[in-house]
Structures are given as C-alpha cells and as structure tokens.
Amino acid sequence: MAESSRLCSVWVGSETGILKGVDLGKKQAFNYSDLSTLSRDQEVSALCWGDDFESEVLVGCVNRTVKTFSTEKSRFTEFRHCPGGEGPFRGLAVWDGSLITCVESGLLKVWKEGSVDSAEITVGPDVYKMCQSPSQRHRVATGGKENDLKIWDLQRPEEPVFRAKNLRNDWLDLRVPVWIRDMQFIPGSDKVVTSTGYHQVRVYDPASPQRRPVLQVEYEEYPLTALSLTPDANSVVVGNTHGQVAIIDLRQGRLLRCLKGVAGSVLSLQCHSSLPLVASCGLDRFLRIHNTQDGRLQHKVYLKSRLNCLLFSSQDKLEADGETALQDGVKEEDEEEEDEVWADMPTVTDRAGGGKRRKESEEEPQPSTGPDAAGKTKSATQAKKKTKGMTIGATQAKKTKGKTIDATQTKKTKRKLRSSS
Questions:
Q1: Can you give the pLDDT at residue 413?
Q2: Beta-carbon-side half-sphere exposure of residue 297 (alpha carbons within 13 Å)
Q3: What pLDDT does 378 receive?
Q4: Residue 360 has pLDDT above 50, yes or no
Q5: 200: which strand partners?
Q6: Half-sphere exposure of 304 toward its Cβ, with a 13 Å CA cutoff?
C-alpha cells in the first residue's frame, strides 16, 4: 500500500469522506480511509499540499477536522480540529508552518504550529472560495455570493489590500449581481482570474488604477463552478454545472476549444504545472484527464462516489504517464462518435421473420413493348375516351334538366299572373 501511494498522480476527495489516490499509468484507484468508521460529516470539502515536496496532503472535512496524509507512509499522520464559524471549509493553505483555513460563514483563521491560539479575519459572509498566491504565500484572495473579490495580506490583516468594485448598472439601470465561485492568482503578477455563478470569467489587476475587472468573458449560460490556469498562464480552463468544460484565451478574451466527454456538474479542475493536461471531477463520479492542446480525453477512471475536489501532482512520476498519454489517447465518448457508428452500419430493408417488403435490389417493373403491349395501350385509350364521353353526356343531361325545370317554373308563373288578373 505504501508503494501504491507513491505512484498516485491525482488525489481526490469524495462526498463519502474517502481520500482516493489514482495511478494514471495503471488506471487504478486506491482508498486511503477506514471505510468502517466513515460518516456523513466526514465529507471532504477541501484539499491542499502540506509542503512544497508534495509529500503530505491536507484533507479538510465538513466536521472541521483537518487530516494530514503522508504519501510516503500511505497513512494519516495527524488530525487537527479547527472550530469556529459555520459551514464547510472553502479553502486550505499553508504559510510559514501555519495552517490557513476559511469557512463558508467568512471566518478566516491562521493556526500557528504548536499553538492553540489563532489569528482571525472576517472576510464577509457566504464565502465560496479562498485561495493562496503561489509567489507571495502571505496573500490570499476570498470571494462568494454578494461578496466580491478581496485580497488580504496576512502580515497586515486589518484591511484588504485590494477590494474589487462591482460593474456599472446594466442597460436597465439595475445592479449587477455578484457571485464568485472560484478564483486563482496568475503567476508572475498580482492579477487574479475569477469565475462567477453568472457564467462570467473576469480578470482583476490590483496594480491598475481601476478596481473593476480589466477583462470579462462570458461562456454559455450556466454557472461556472471551477477554473484552473494552464501552465503558460495565458489561458484558463473553466467548467460549469452542465458538464461543459472549455479553454478561454485570456489575452484575446475568446473561446479556444471545448473539452468533451464530461457528464454532470464539474466541481473541481486543476491543470498540470508543466504538461498540457487538465484533471476534472464532479457529480458523474469519473476522474478525467484531457489534453489542453488538442482537447482529447487521455484518461478516464470511475471512482464510485461523487467527487468534490482534487490535487494534480507535479512530480516527475507523472512525466512518463503524461508522455504516454499524449501518444495513446482514450477515444472520446461523444455524440459525434455515435453518429459515425450509425452512419457506418448497413441499412436493413427486410423485416425480421420474412416480411413481404421488397428489397432495394429489386427494380420497379418496367412497361413492356411489342404487339401485345400496343393492343393493350389502344384498349386503354379507348376506355378512357369512352369514360370521358360518358362524363360529358352526364354533364349535358344535367344542363338539359336544369333548362327544363326553368321553363316549367316560367309557365307556372305566367298562369298565376293570368288568373290573378
């Protein structure tokens, strides 16, 4: 079991509280939780790496317990209860040996190692996401429903260093609603890209004079639930509640391509740090790995339970799998493939059981030629003329009858006039 955890490239947290490790090379998943002690309040709501070497996975559960899983020992080594606030964890992070947690009610805490005390920050109600800057670990961003983007400096937590400003009223002069679902810092800058519940992708730049987004792109019409930046940070992969995953170019603000094969709401996305791969999971219980360059589905693993979050390893153990995946892709299961299958199938024209339908190979009977055929044609022509003559005769008879009736009525009218006079 210890050997298997070292080979796992993706770590997934499920709704049932199980931490799953997936070996993409063998397309095999391993459960690293005690199935006999699972309960509903152990649902995994957040995951993050415990160190830069990715030797530890921090698992945040709904019951406010943060578990530390060692990928080298293949077991949980530490359990920490983090009370305070209400709702599940909306983000976990590690900074300078301290654990950073944020819950749905908006209470952000910094738990120092070896100390029971913690620093608290109120970031606003109804939080949906808290994320950490990869270059400046002491900076975190938060956002949620009617709780716009804020960037906090944990060294000076009194006020946010950046507070986003909502868009101007729409063409009906109505306020634009706010609903941030996911976000990520763009490496090498202070910019933050967000996805909203109103199918918008926005980019904020704290270094610019304006606090409104410097870029906004809309994708489809359903809430965007997850996003992840590609390794070059020029594009972002987004997923929505209807299983639609797409890559959007942040430089030109346009759609690059769609990634097919996902069914059900996408709850988590993460791109590999160096390879052109993106992992996705959600309510359909599948883990999928797509190639971001051509959109092909590389891996697909069924994990038996609904999946809430994932971590994509960047270690060298994935490079061999990634190179193999780039060469041998999994055939996508989409509607186009089904159409091709139906188009290639031969057309069956006979009914099962020996029906009386004619085969397509049988030709329609052609009119015959010769003396007999000429006689038959002449008889048919005479019959038509005879029928036509009968029709004309009946019409003339009707007209004559009508004239006779009119003459009779005229005579009766004259007699009445004479008698009255």
A1: 64
A2: 17
A3: 54
A4: no
A5: 218
A6: 10
CB 271 within 8 A of CB 227: no
Of 169, 87, 100, nearest to 139 by C-alpha is 100
**In the block, residue with structure tokens 């780039």:** 326
Residues 268 and 256: their CA atoms lie apart, in Å, by 20
Which amino acid, 31?
N
Sheet holding 200-204, edge to edge: 180-185, 192-196, 200-204, 215-218
The pTM assigned to this predicted structure is 0.75
**Residue 286 contacts residue 302 (beta carbons within 8 Å):** yes
CA distance 230 to 315: 17
Do 238 and 255 touch, CB atoms closer than 8 A?
Answer: no
pLDDT of residue 167: 95
Strand partners, 143: 129
Q: Looking at residue 341, what is its pLDDT?
A: 54
Taking the C-alpha atoms of residue 18 and residue 21, their distance in angstroms, rounded to an integer, is: 10
Q: How far apart are CA 122 and CA 102, in angstroms?
A: 9
